[in-house]
Amino acid sequence: MKRSIPLKLKLTAISVCILTAMCVAFAISTIYSTNGLVQATITTPAISVDESMPAISVDESMLAITSEPSAAVTEALWQFRGTTVLVMLCLIAIGSALTYLFASRTLKPLEDLTERVQHIDIHNLDEGVSIPQTKDEAAKLAQAFQNMTEKLNLSYQVQKNFSANAAHELRTPLAAIQTQLDVFQMKPDRNAEEYTNLLQSIGESTERLSNLVKDLLTFTNEQGIGKKEPVELKPLLEETVFELEEYAATKHIEITISGKGTVLGDDSLLQRAFFNLISNAIRYNVDCGSIFIEITDDQVTIADTGIGIPDEAKSHIFDTFFCVDKSRSRELGGSGLGLAIVKSIIEKHNGYIYVKNNQPQGSIFIVGFNSNI
């Protein structure tokens, strides 16, 4: 594997190259300018020549001598050049060292962040990273990574709790089936009624297990909206109520639909969401109760006359596997995933959902859409 070069060395190398080029250019220009200055000094007369002054005869050999720099001047020029080159090299060396120290100090927060990140795993996601007080790009990067670890930790905890709850919910009907079989096998004599009761009990547990698995698959495989088309809400809700008509008839519940409206979305996903809401309104309603569904341009209200939801549970009813009364939910066949699926579908349609009390009893679910047509 090719060994990587540290960033501070790369920055130092680039800075040294730039500094060297600038120092060399400055030294060359200085030496060139000095040579020109010396040459101009030698060739310029010491006194100004006036036409009124008597002519002075000058030997041509003397002119040749005075037009060239003397040995002392030449030696001084060489000393100046050497000094210039020496100063240039010293500046390059000092500048390189200072650049390396500055780059090391500037990149120290990144090195600390890298070291901290390398030690983060699923067991210490909640520890996060320290944010430097530099208020520069390193601090922004550390803050961004801190936000990412918080989101990852939250997602991991949600997934962990979801897996634990799913395992518990799946184990419950299986344990019930196993217990019934064990008790049945311990009986020496078994009549037809006991066989019938056993099969009925196993059938109920199997149905509950099948519904739970179906809800799990629906929740975990829920995808984004594949299409966005105008959806007439009233025909969709009327079709949903028709599918639940027999279920509502078992409890003599009357369902009324009023109003109309149109939203953009996936009709199959919306029907699934409203199916869960209306089936819950039937499941947790009282005998001979009622359900009122009101449709407006951007909102659907489903009000029932059922057992209601305690105020302290309203903020949790859309969480996965949350049940206000677990024993009653299992008795009625609830899995604790229906409202979580509803919330996921509504949010995918850029909507919202919440619940409030119905008067004198029951609950009202309000489903709103922010992008109606």
Tell me what you see in this structure.
The protein is an alpha+beta fold and 373 residues long. It has three domains: 7-43 and 60-119, no CATH class; 137-220, Signal transduction histidine kinase, dimerisation/phosphotransfer (DHp) domain (Helix Hairpins, Orthogonal Bundle), CATH 1.10.287; 229-369, Histidine kinase-like ATPase, C-terminal domain (Heat Shock Protein 90), CATH 3.30.565.10. It is 60% helix and 11% strand. The chain has helices spanning 7-43, 60-66, 71-118, 137-186, 192-220, 233-243, 245-249, 267-283, 326-332, 338-348, and strands at residues 229-232, 254-259, 262-265, 290-295, 299-304, 351-357, 363-369. Strands 2-4-5-7-6 form a five-stranded mixed sheet, with helices on one face. A two-stranded antiparallel ribbon has the order 1-3. Helix 1 packs antiparallel against helix 3 (71-118), helix 4 (137-186) runs antiparallel to helix 5 and helix 6 (233-243) crosses helix 8. Residues 61-65 have low confidence and may be disordered.
Summarize the structure in short.
This protein is of the alpha+beta class and 373 residues long. The protein is built from 10 helices and 7 strands. It has 3 domains: 7-43 and 60-119, no CATH class; 137-220, Signal transduction histidine kinase, dimerisation/phosphotransfer (DHp) domain (Helix Hairpins), CATH 1.10.287.130; 229-369, Histidine kinase-like ATPase, C-terminal domain (Heat Shock Protein 90).
